[in-house]
Amino acid sequence: MDKIRLPDTELIIMKIIWRHGGKVTSAEIMDGLRGKKGWAVTTVLNLLARLADRGFVKTQRQGKVNIYTPLVNEETYLEAESKSFLERLHGNSLKSFIASLHGGRPLSKTDIEELREFLEHESEGGDIL
Question: Residues 69, 61: contact at Cβ < 8 Å?
Fold first, then answer.
């Protein structure tokens, strides 16, 4: 994916768009933000304009409202972001990543079994996620 990393504010908007599964209006995005962020409509519209400029959403005028459609799917973005995070902060070391997530505490039997299942499935060329 050639898209750039999204700032947290724009990622919040994209998550709402992805959750809607397709076309969404700014009013629906505002509803998705209710109780989470106290952003003004102008703030949301500015964030949507940035997302359109960056190629993450397509804007289509329909009557008096704009319809926003994602141009990048969530899985593609999260995969690219996760790979970038692993590379930037852990030098592509899964061991370093897992150790930092777990904070030095011993892994539970359940954690170890889940990791084992994941690794076995991956070694067979499967797609566990």
Answer: no
Question: What are the tokens at 58?
Answer: 């397509």
Residue 2 has pLDDT above 70, yes or no: no
Q: Which of 97, 94, 30, 96 is nearest to 68 (CA)?
A: 30
- CA 120, 125, 129 angle in degrees (round to 5)? 75
Give yes or no for a contact between 12 and 62, defined as CB atoms under 8 angstroms apart.
Answer: no
User: Which structural domain range is residue 120 located in?
Assistant: 93-129
Query: Sheet containing 65-70: which strands, arranged edge to edge?
Result: 24-25, 65-70, 57-62
Same domain, 84 and 98: no
Q: Do 37 and 54 lie in a common domain?
A: yes
pLDDT one-digit tens code per residue, 58-82: 999 999 999 999 999 999 998 888 8
Let me know whether 10 and 35 are in one domain.
yes
